[in-house]
């Protein structure tokens, strides 16, 4: 009997509350409204992106969002970098890439769309590679079933965004090792490590050395002194340091 009374009272309270509860319930069921900025981005994506393209999230690293906001060109306004995957009929036909939107007078405009053959974005980094106080986009991506990754570096110039570097790799480190204000890129691949340095043409190869990186090795950057850093490659059986001096690789066994 008590159970029936509780039900009757509950139903009475529900109907006696009138439209206010209905309005609250309806508002809870509706999706949240997009901000004006988000709405503009959504509209631009619908206009410029094919239907077979979807958002993708980088697998590793600090930037694991499908949309990143960062100042690429140094104008103190963030660009929107949107990471995308274009599904192909076969996995090897698929592409990954990113759409760059700029803010002009508080409105988002399409700046560039860059794509590469691949299935996964492993990581994305934003760094000033050549010391011009503008961030480049460093994309680490790979095909499904492949152990080899690809690194692409993209930079804005007068004609728009373009790729200034591309190479296959098993691993890489991008760091100012000799502390001269421009980055060194160390690419590990095929039992070798190769040193690249930024210049007006992009990144040029400066040196190469035999260096086998075993699976499971830890690779970290550590400070040596105030004027240099080293890459420490370590496993259970060995420990080596890689340093750069006068655009030459120095391999030190510990």
What does this molecule look like?
This protein has 254 residues and is an alpha+beta fold. It contains three helices and 17 strands. The strands form four sheets. Strands 1, 2, 3, 4 and 5 form a five-stranded antiparallel beta sheet that branches. The protein is globular. Residues 1-22 and 24-34 have low confidence and may be disordered. It comes from Clostridium thailandense.
Overall morphology:
globular
**Spatial separation of the terminal alpha carbons:** 82 Å
How do the helices and strands follow one another from N- to C-terminus?
HHHEEEEEEEEEEEEEEEEE
Supply the helix-strand structural class.
Answer: alpha+beta
What are the salient characteristics of this protein?
254 residues; four-stranded antiparallel beta sheet; alpha+beta; globular; single chain; disordered N terminus
Give a brief description.
By secondary structure, this protein is an alpha+beta fold.
Topology:
Elements: H1 2-16, H2 19-29, H3 36-48, E1 53-55, E2 67-70, E3 79-86, E4 95-104, E5 107-117, E6 120-127, E7 136-142, E8 149-157, E9 160-169, E10 171-175, E11 184-189, E12 192-199, E13 202-210, E14 218-225, E15 228-234, E16 239-245, E17 248-253
Antiparallel strand pairs: 1-3, 2-3, 3-4, 4-5, 6-7, 7-8, 8-9, 10-11, 11-12, 12-13, 14-15, 15-16, 16-17
């Amino acid at each position: 009997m008590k159970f029936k009374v509780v039900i009757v009272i509950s139903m009475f309270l529900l109907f006696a509350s009138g439209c206010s509860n209905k309005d609250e319930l309806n508002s809870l069921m509706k999706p949240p409204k997009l901000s004006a900025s988000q709405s503009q981005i959504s509209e631009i994506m619908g206009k410029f992106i094919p239907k077979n393209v979807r958002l993708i999230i980088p697998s590793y690293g600090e930037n694991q969002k499908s949309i990143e906001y960062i100042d690429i060109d140094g104008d103190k306004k963030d660009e929107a970098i949107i990471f995308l995957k274009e599904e192909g009929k076969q996995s090897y036909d698929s592409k990954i890439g990113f759409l760059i939107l700029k803010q002009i007078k508080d409105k988002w405009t399409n700046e560039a769309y860059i794509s590469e053959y691949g299935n996964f974005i492993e990581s994305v980094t934003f760094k000033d590679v050549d010391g011009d106080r503008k961030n480049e986009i460093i994309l680490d991506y790979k095909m499904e079933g492949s152990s080899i990754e690809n690194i692409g570096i993209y930079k804005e110039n007068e004609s728009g965004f373009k790729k200034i570097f591309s190479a296959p790799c098993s691993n890489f480190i991008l760091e100012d090792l000799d502390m001269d204000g421009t980055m060194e890129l160390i690419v590990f691949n095929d039992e070798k490590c190769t040193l690249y340095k930024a210049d007006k043409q992009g990144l040029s190869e400066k040196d190469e050395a035999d260096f086998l990186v075993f699976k499971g090795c830890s690779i970290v950057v550590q400070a040596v002194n105030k004027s240099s850093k080293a890459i420490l490659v370590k496993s259970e059986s060995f420990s080596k340091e890689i340093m750069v001096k006068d655009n030459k690789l120095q391999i030190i066994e510990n």
